[in-house]
Every structure is written in structure tokens, then in C-alpha cells.
Design goal:
GO molecular function (chain B): oxidoreductase activity
Pfam families (chain B): MoCoBD_1 (PF02738), MoCoBD_2 (PF20256)
Radius of gyration of chain B: 27 Å
Structural class of chain B: alpha+beta
CATH topology of the largest domain in chain A: Ubiquitin-like (UB roll)
Organism (chain A): Xaviernesmea oryzae
Distance between the termini of chain B: 56 Å
Keywords (chain A): 2Fe-2S, Iron, Iron-sulfur, Metal-binding, Oxidoreductase
CATH topology of the largest domain in chain B: Aldehyde Oxidoreductase, domain 4
Strand order of the largest sheet of chain B: 11-12-9-19-16-17-18
Protein name (chain B): Isoquinoline 1-oxidoreductase, beta subunit
CATH class of the largest domain in chain A: Alpha Beta
Number of domains of chain A: 2
Number of strands of chain B: 30
Order of helices and strands of chain A: EEHEEEHHHH
Largest interface: A-B, 56 and 61 residues
Strand content of chain B: 15-25%
Oligomer: heterodimer
Radius of gyration of chain A: 15 Å
Distance between the termini of chain A: 41 Å
CATH architecture of the largest domain in chain B: 2-Layer Sandwich
CATH superfamily of the largest domain in chain B: Aldehyde oxidase/xanthine dehydrogenase, molybdopterin binding domain
Largest sheet of chain A: 5 strands, mixed
Number of domains of chain B: 3
Structural class of chain A: alpha+beta
Strand order of the largest sheet of chain A: 2-1-5-3-4
Number of helices of chain A: 5
Chain lengths: ~150, ~775
């Protein structure tokens, strides 16, 4: 039995200790926003915030996050349904194409802006290592800068 | 304007439609009460008014637009919904939703792809017959960048017809002539009396009226949506993490399966050495051999299935392909380029005589590209339920419901079961790029579901199976020759490509018939360069079979042939001592549409402005999918050979544009996809087996060194062309030409560079040292 916070709610999960957080979220907690894309921390589609840090959940065993606070892309939406700044910037720049990888990018960008509210292009390159096969990188870059501007104006 | 055939068609085709009607009756939702060949008649189902095959209006005013094409990121659900909303005078807001219809109505058939006639222009008995046959087959497929070309007009007509039915219903309700009524913002209005009626109030009455014989289309001057960028209808769910892709389908009592395929394609399962051990793993319900060729582990969760599958100890049969390497494939292709009797696809003038008569040296170059795979971000998956009564329902991220149906037939057939009915749900696709046209995964899921009747089975391939055991773009080579005249322009152009036939391989897996391997039209597309004025021209092809399964792959033959031909044109220009842009301009003297696009790309890039040492600029142009595209790449090559693509400028003429931002997004994404192809990706064979297995050894472009992209749309006023594939087509040649400009090195094989790992999820690309 592993206890943790997921999107602000305390949950306890009974499962194999070695089961990756990604599959616990998807199969045991019905949170389907984090995606399976590679299983080896290469693509970032599975990224979630663990105690605020953007982490590939596909290689994170569930027993290693006992007591931690996990936030998935679904958890970024406010209780009244309002999108987070990053999600809104993603809409404003019309970023996604197929959209399968975007939850991971949105999580990675959220963590970046938390640590570096006005990132330079070089800082974006450093922080965002996810893969988007549709090739939305130019729009992701614009959306991160837009979110940074929205953050500064808030 | 051609009229939609009325229900008179039923007299001819009614018997054949019976099966379709039966499927629809079981499947339920939205089948048209009056069986019309093109499905334009309406009906009412409770609160839902189905006005025609493409449009449902609910009592609360919500509108569901049925788009029978797969959304895989290209924005087609938005573009085609815009067309209906335009004609209907509906605001384009969140009252509109889009659904992929479950019934294979004839109106949804993709006859354009087969007959190559635009619906707005098509006529004649061949078209009539073709439409009937493809309609009855339920030939619905998304590919060849054709969705807008195939459906923008029929969906305009559907919207216009529905608007006229709403006006007629309003006329009856208000007791005034329809001519006194107008529509706007989802209302029918009577200006004189100030009265107005909401579409939601009128839709049920309107749906039961006969559709107009010849709906009047809105003149282009009155368009308020078409041609103006609209926000994509699918993006809110995608940024919230709420979008249901195939992999996210969750059904009660569902089982999960992971698959292991043979390391060498064509091998069969000889023995599972440890089946009992695998069956004893936590959650495992079944270990099954599929069609003698694959092993599936079925469990309560996919994690359990995959864990158990990783323990499988499978002995495979030996095949003749077990020794094949990429080097051997390459040698086979080069040998084929010396073939005595290749298939002749085009022969204009007399190429040999022109070459023999030319006094300047012949330009003669051989190019090559490797196998590639699609690596869609959503790994392959399919969910199938076989009920106790033999009815089957499937949920698949697929490009083709017909493929899904065929796959279900095949998979259940392996289990000795014949479905009593099939309902096919096409989910959102997490990328497709041609990969999801194939029935392979559906057949696996259907077989397993037939073994576990009453429980849905979801098959997910691991990324390793996707990259190492999937479908591939051909490994191909070409020899191009040209003789130049005294003015430096080609008097003869001779192209010979050696590649495994794409159509032959795809048809062998998916169709009941096969056109044969020779003269494959997809293997030669991009070779003819018909837009260049050249007096003698020949295009030939040689099929080079292998054990590898070849699939459709974004832009098919263009993905290699345009690299070959547009590199070659640069080689001709340089031999003639001409600037590559000026040389192309001369070659395009009889093709004003292409010239305009080329000039626009050159202008965007500031062609001709000086560049620093180690930097270079390259250009390429192509016509594909009835669109014309040109791109300029700017590269920097460092002393140690590290290459960076700094910027790519693109111009495209896609004819009439429905949603400009979606076209721009396709160009941006296509360019990035093309940079991956040009610099990074290759699938290699060793011992008959694919060497690569995941993104660490099948590198794709990431954020850090992706080029900046600038795109312009050139408006020719022509009817719509395709936008999904052209974006990737010129990229590799533009980059290869830029590398030559920067370094003087001509690299004739892809990938142009070797990808080196420089840190966690970080790479750099270094030019191949084997360059000549």
C-alpha cells in the first residue's frame, strides 16, 4: 500500500511496488492525461509534477513516490474549469496537432516557468527535452514566451 | 454542379445496401431512415434531428458535424466543420462538436482518392459506377492529403441543403414565404416582423422535409469562415488532458494485451519454451499464438501483460532473410539500378539519342535513402469486443474504418468466428503518418477478443515493437542522368529508381487483390519533374523485393524522390555554372504557378544576400497532392562537421485555403518532420532484424536544435489541394543543397548526418564523413 497526493487528493494504492507511476495513474487511478510514449524516459509524454518537479513517470516506481504530491495535466485545470496559464497559452498559440505528447510538454513548461518565470530561448532549450513527432516546437516556444508574459502581467 | 443522386439509386443498389442497413440497425446511432445512396435525407431520433449524413442538430441548439475522416493532428475536423458552419450561417463556437460517424454510409466514401476527380467537377458514367462501388464497399480512408479535396464540396452542399430545409421549416412555422427569411448566427429570421426562430426549434421539422434538389451555395464573397483562421475544435480537450486517444479507451471488464513479433519478418513461432511460467505471472489470463506469427500475453492490466511478455522465451523458425543486412540491401538496390529491363513509367522524346548527341559531359549521380519508420507518438493499439452473439465492436485509432472491418474479419477468422455485425469507432489518432492505414493491430485484437468473448481486449504495442517490428518506408536508391545543352539546361533527363513496391506490399497485407509489384506509382512520384521544361524525359523503376513490410509513409515516394531530383537539379545548375534559384526559374519558364511559389520562398529567405563562412542556403521545389511547395534551408556547418539547420522558409500554394492557420501548422510541422528525415533517422538491418528499438537509437528532432520556421501561403485561386504531406517533401533536398553551398560537399545519401548523444535526451548532428 502506497499513499500519496494526486492532484490535491490523498490516494492510497495497492499494487506492485515496482509498478511505474505512469501505469498506476492510468490503470489504477483512471488519470489518462499522462501518456505512454516510450517507457524509457526518452519522449516525455508521461511527465508529471512530483513535488513540483517535472518527472518522467514511466520510469518512476510507485513506491519511490510514497508521501509525495503528484500533479498531472488534469490537475493543472482549476476547480472551476479555468485553464492554467500554460494551458491557455497553448490554446492561444494553437500548439497541438495530434496532441498526444502535449500533456508532457505542458507539465515540463509549467515546471520551467515555476523555476524561471521569464525564460530565454536557451533556457527553454535546456529545460524542454520532450519529443513531438508532429513538429510543434516553434509553437511550443511561442506559447512558453506567451505564458511568461501572461505571468508577468498577472 | 453535379446533383447528389436521389433515392432513386436505391432501386438499383438496394439489395447490396441491405447488409449496410443491417449493420447500421445493430450499430444504432444516426443511420438514415431513408436509404439514399448518398445519404442526404434526414430523420428524427428523439431530441436529435439528423438533417443529413453530415449534420445533426439537437433541441438545445448544439450541432454535431459528422466528419468521416480521421483527425490525426492535421486539423481536418475543424476545416470540414467550418465548411458546414459557413453554409449554415452557424457561429463557429463551442456549440459545434465533431464526430467520426460509425456507419459507413456511401456519402462518406473516399472515391476521390481512387477516381482522382474532384466532386465539384466529376461527371460521366465511370464516376457514377466508381462512386456506387466504392460507396457500397464503405471505402473510407484518410490519406494522400485528400480529405479537403474530397469533402469540402459535398459538405458545403450538405450545409447548404440543411440551411434551405431550415428555411422551409421556418416558412411553414411563420406562415411567410421562405424568400422573406434570412439566416444568421443559428437563427432563421423574418426581418419584416422581427420574428426569429432558433435552429434547435426548427431542426426536427426541417429534418423531415425533402432535401432540395440543387442546394444554392453561398458565394465566396459572403464567406465569413472559409479563408479565415479558426481555432481548432479538438484543442481544448487536448490541453486539458481529456482527449480520448485509442490508447485511452477504457471499457468495463477490459483485458489488456502485449505482443511479441518475430525479430526477422516472415519467421513463425516455433515454440514458447516457458509458457507455463508466463501464464503463472500476476494478472495473466492467456498466452496466445496469433496466426502462427506473434505471441500475445493477455492480462488484467497492460503493465502486467508487458511484464509477463518480457519474460517470454520464444523460438522462431529460420527464414532466408536471417542474414540480410542494410549493406546487403544497399548492394541489391545498386545492382537493380543496372537492371537491363526496368519498368518504363514515362518516356517522352528520345533520352538516349539526346544524351549521345550532347557534347557536354553527362551529369550522372546515384542517391540513396534508408528504411524509416513512422514512430507515431501514440504507440499502435486497438480495442475489440466480441459479444456472445457474435457481434463485434472496435475502438481503433485508425486511418480507415474499412481497414478496421477487414482486420476484424481476419482476426476473428483466425479464431474460427464470423462476426454477425461490426461497429467501428474511430478514435482520435496520436499521429498516423500512413502507419494507421494498416489492419495489423486490429486483426490481433480481434483474434484475442474472439478468444475472450464478452470481454473487450485492448492490444498495445510497446515502443520497441513499434520501431523494431512494425512497418517501414522503403530503402531506395536512384540513378539520375542528364545531358546539358549549350545553354547549360538539360536536353535529356533520365531517372531510374530502385525500391520495394509500396502498393504491392500494402495490398498484400490489406486487400483481397494485388496490382503486382512493377511500375508502382507511389515509388516513382517526385521523379517526373513535369513542371521543368525538358525536351527528353524518361522515368523508370525497378521493384526490389525484401522481407521487410513496407507501409504508407507520409508523402511516400516524394519522401525520397524529391530528395534525389532536387539535389540533382542543383548538381546540374552547378555544372552549368548557374545559381540554383536562377537555374530553376529558367526550368520553370512554362510553369507560372510553380515559379510564383519558388519566388515567394526565395524572397522570404532573402536569397542572394551574403552569408558568413560555414553557412549556406539551399532551395527545392515540388508539386505534390495538387499543391506546389518550395523551401529554402539555411544551415551552419562547424569546423568539426556539426550541422545546424538554422532556419527554413517555406512557400506553399494549396489552392483555396479553408483554415489558413491549420495550413501553416502543417507546413511548420512538416518541415520539422522533414529535418528528422534529412539529418537523423534510419532503420538498419542486421541479421535480418531491425537494429533500432526506441528513441535513443531512432533519434528524432527535439526542441533544442530545431530550426526557426517561416511560412507563406501563395494564393493562386485554384481549387483546394492537399496540405498534410507537402510540408516534408522539399526539406531534405533544401538542406543537402545548403550543405553543399556551405562546404562544397555533395552528400547523396540520407540521413545526411550522424546523430551523436551529448547528454540526457540531447543530441547533435555531424555530417557524414563519407561524403564526396
Amino acid at each position: 500500500m502506497v499513499e500519496l497526493m494526486v492532484n490535491g487528493t490523498r490516494v492510497s494504492v495497492e499494487t506492485d511496488a515496482g509498478k511505474p507511476l505512469l501505469w498506476v495513474l492510468r490503470e489504477d487511478l483512471d488519470l489518462l492525461g499522462p501518456k505512454y510514449g516510450c517507457g524509457v524516459a526518452q519522449c516525455g509524454a508521461c511527465r508529471v509534477l512530483i513535488d513540483g518537479e517535472s518527472t518522467p513517470s514511466c520510469v518512476t516506481p510507485i513506491d519511490s513516490v510514497a508521501g509525495a504530491s503528484v500533479v498531472t495535466v488534469e490537475g493543472l485545470v482549476q476547480a472551476d474549469g479555468t485553464l492554467s496559464l500554460v494551458q491557455q497559452a497553448w490554446i492561444d498559440e494553437q500548439v497541438p496537432q495530434c496532441g498526444f505528447c502535449q500533456p508532457g510538454f505542458i507539465i515540463a513548461a509549467t515546471a520551467l516557468l515555476e523555476a524561471t518565470p521569464q525564460p530565454t530561448d536557451a533556457q527553454i532549450d535546456e529545460a524542454i527535452t520532450n519529443i513531438c513527432r508532429c513538429g510543434t516546437y516553434p509553437r511550443i516556444r511561442r506559447a512558453i514566451h506567451r505564458a511568461a508574459t501572461m505571468l508577468a502581467e498577472r | 454542379m453535379p446533383r447528389f443522386l436521389s433515392r432513386r439509386g436505391f432501386l438499383i443498389t438496394g439489395a447490396a445496401l441491405g447488409g449496410t442497413a443491417l449493420i447500421a440497425a445493430v450499430g444504432g446511432v444516426g443511420y438514415l431512415a431513408t436509404v439514399d445512396v448518398d445519404g442526404l435525407d434526414g430523420f428524427v431520433d428523439g431530441d436529435r434531428a439528423v438533417l443529413n449524413a453530415f449534420l445533426t442538430i439537437q433541441g438545445d441548439g448544439r450541432v454535431v458535424i459528422q466528419v468521416p475522416r480521421t483527425e490525426m493532428g492535421q486539423g481536418i475536423h475543424t476545416g470540414l466543420a467550418m465548411v458546414v458552419a459557413e453554409e449554415l450561417d452557424l457561429p463557429f463556437d463551442d456549440r459545434i462538436s465533431v464526430a467520426f460517424p460509425t456507419e459507413p454510409l456511401p456519402a462518406y466514401a473516399n472515391w476521390f482518392n481512387v477516381l482522382q476527380q474532384r466532386p465539384e467537377e466529376a461527371s460521366g458514367p465511370a464516376v457514377w459506377v466508381g462512386r456506387r462501388v466504392l460507396g457500397l464497399l464503405g471505402f473510407i480512408a484518410t490519406g494522400a492529403s485528400a480529405s479537403t479535396m474530397a469533402l469540402w464540396h459535398p459538405m458545403r452542399v450538405a450545409g447548404a441543403a440543411a440551411r434551405q430545409m431550415l428555411l422551409a421549416a421556418g416558412s411553414a412555422r411563420l406562415g411567410v414565404p421562405a424568400a422573406q427569411l434570412t439566416t444568421a448566427d443559428g437563427f432563421v429570421r423574418h426581418e419584416a416582423s422581427g420574428r426569429s426562430l432558433f435552429y434547435g426549434e426548427l431542426a426536427r421539422e426541417a429534418a423531415l422535409l425533402p432535401p432540395p434538389d440543387d442546394p444554392v451555395l453561398k458565394p465566396a464573397a459572403d464567406w465569413r469562415l472559409i479563408g479565415k483562421s479558426q481555432r481548432r475544435v479538438d484543442l481544448p480537450a487536448k490541453v486539458r488532458g481529456e482527449q480520448v486517444f485509442g490508447m485511452d479507451v477504457v471499457l468495463p471488464d477490459m483485458l489488456h494485451a502485449s505482443i511479441r513479433h518475430a525479430p526477422v519478418f516472415g519467421a513463425r513461432v516455433s515454440r514458447i519454451a516457458n509458457e507455463a511460467e508466463v501464464r503463472a505471472q500476476p494478472g495473466v489470463k492467456d498466452v496466445a499464438v496469433i496466426d502462427g506469427r506473434q505471441v500475445a500475453v493477455v492480462a488484467d492490466s497492460w503493465w502486467q501483460a508487458e511484464q509477463a511478455a518480457s519474460l517470454l522465451d520464444i523460438a522462431w523458425t529460420q527464414t532466408e532473410a536471417a542474414g540480410v543486412t542494410s549493406a546487403e540491401m544497399s548492394a541489391r538496390l545498386k545492382t537493380a539500378l543496372g537492371s537491363a529491363e526496368p519498368y518504363e513509367n514515362i518516356n517522352e522524346g528520345d533520352v538516349e539519342a539526346a544524351i549521345a548527341g550532347s557534347t557536354s559531359p553527362m551529369i550522372d549521380a546515384t542517391y540513396e535513402v534508408p528504411f524509416l519508420t513512422h514512430a507515431c507518438m501514440e504507440p499502435m493499439n486497438a480495442t475489440v469486443l466480441v459479444r456472445q452473439d457474435g457481434s463485434v465492436e472496435a475502438w481503433v485509432p485508425s486511418q480507415s474504418p474499412l481497414g478496421v472491418r477487414t482486420g476484424i474479419g481476419r482476426g476473428t477468422g483466425w479464431a474460427g468466428l464470423e462476426p454477425t455485425s461490426i461497429t467501428c469507432n474511430i478514435t482520435m489518432n496520436g499521429g498516423a503518418f500512413g502507419r494507421r492505414s494498416d489492419l495489423d493491430v486490429t486483426a490481433q485484437a480481434a483474434f484475442l477478443a474472439a478468444r475472450h468473448r464478452g470481454r473487450p481486449v485492448k492490444v498495445i504495442w510497446s515502443r520497441e515493437e513499434d520501431i523494431g517490428r512494425g512497418l517501414y518506408r522503403s530503402h531506395a536508391a536512384a540513378r539520375l542522368r542528364a545531358a546539358l545543352g549549350p545553354d547549360g539546361l538539360p536536353v535529356a533527363y533520365d531517372a531510374l529508381v530502385a525500391a520495394q513496391s509500396i502498393i504491392h506490399s500494402v495490398a498484400g497485407r490489406n486487400l483481397p487483390f494485388n496490382p503486382g509489384p512493377d511500375g508502382d506509382s507511389l515509388s516513382v512520384e517526385g521523379l517526373d519533374k513535369l513542371h521543368y521544361t525538358i525536351p527528353n524525359r524518361r522515368v523508370r523503376s525497378q521493384n526490389v523485393p525484401s522481407h521487410m513490410p513496407i507501409g504508407f509513409w507520409r508523402s511516400n515516394g516524394f519522401s525520397f524522390n524529391t530528395f534525389f531530383t532536387e539535389s540533382f537539379v542543383d548538381e546540374c545548375a552547378l555544372a552549368a555554372g548557374a545559381d540554383p534559384l536562377a537555374y530553376r526559374r529558367t526550368l520553370l519558364r512554362d510553369s507560372p504557378r510553380h515559379l510564383a511559389v519558388l519566388n515567394r520562398a526565395a524572397e522570404l529567405a532573402g536569397w542572394g544576400s551574403p552569408m558568413a563562412q560555414g553557412r549556406g542556403r539551399g532551395i527545392a521545389v515540388e508539386e505534390c497532392y495538387r499543391s506546389v511547395i518550395a523551401q529554402v534551408a539555411e544551415v551552419t556547418v562547424a569546423e568539426d562537421g556539426e550541422i545546424t539547420v538554422d532556419r527554413v522558409f517555406g512557400a506553399i500554394d494549396v489552392g483555396m485555403v479553408i483554415n489558413p492557420d491549420a495550413v501553416i501548422a502543417q507546413m511548420e510541422g512538416g518541415i520539422i518532420f522533414g529535418v528528422t528525415t534529412a539529418l537523423m533517422s534510419a532503420i538498419t538491418l542486421d541479421g535480418g532484424t531491425v537494429t533500432e528499438s526506441n528513441f535513443h537509437d531512432f533519434p528524432v528532432q527535439r526542441m533544442a536544435n530545431a530550426p526557426a520556421v517561416e511560412v507563406a501561403i501563395v494564393d493562386s485561386g485554384l481549387p483546394p489541394g492537399g496540405a498534410g504531406e507537402p510540408g516534408i517533401v522539399p526539406v531534405a533536398a533544401a538542406i543537402a543543397n545548403a550543405i553543399h553551398a556551405a562546404t562544397g560537399r555533395r552528400i547523396r545519401a540520407l540521413p545526411l548526418a550522424v546523430t551523436e548523444t551529448v547528454g540526457e535526451r540531447r543530441t547533435r548532428t555531424v555530417l557524414r564523413s563519407a561524403a564526396t
